[in-house]
Amino acid sequence: IFTVFRDPIHRVVSLFRYLQKASHEPTFNAVLQNMTLEQYAFSELVESNFVTRSLIDKMEGPLEERDFEIAREIIKSKVIVGLLDKLQESIRRFELYFEFGDPAPNATCIDHYIKTGSNRQSNSQLPQSDSPAYLELHRK
Fold it and tell me: How far, CA to CA in Å, does 129 sit from each of 10, 11, 140?
């Protein structure tokens, strides 16, 4: 298994911005349209540790330190990890690990994907790292 991880706060902010306008999405909630990021961060609607919860199959209830330990062990033992902010390097790692062969024929496609992505949103609307919204998202 391989995956690309994104900074969790960047991911939650991006998801929030997306869900504010994605009326076609099954998880669309019109309440989000008029919420600020800070309101969302302190609301019951914000997701909490989605990746950890998915890995350990515990979508509700409080998480304990042991839950995080189990999730980390699953990732360490079963997943080749890439990082979104180092996407080109991550793709190269996947190519080498899976022996995809000569990357040259795919270089144009890979470069295009890295530059445009499939769900690229600007990080310009991220909260300051000392703001209440950021601190609450970090806590969750």
Answer: 11, 15, 14
Distance CA 82, CA 91 (A): 7
The DSSP 8-state label assigned to residue 25 in this structure reads S
HSE (side-chain half, CA atoms, 13 Å) at 106: 11
The CA-CA-CA angle for residues 120, 126, 129, to 5°, reads 140
Is the alpha carbon torsion for 59, 63, 64, 67 positive or negative?
positive
* 140 secondary structure, DSSP code: -
| Position with higher pLDDT, 116 vs 17 | 17
36-78, pLDDT tens digit by residue? Answer: 999 999 999 998 899 999 999 999 999 999 999 999 999 999 9
Query: Per-residue DSSP letters for 71-134?
Result: HHHHHHHH-EEEEGGGHHHHHHHHHHHHT---SGGGHHHHHHHHHHTTT---GGGPPPTTSHHH
Rounded CA separation 46/42 (Å): 7
- 3 state DSSP class of 10: helix
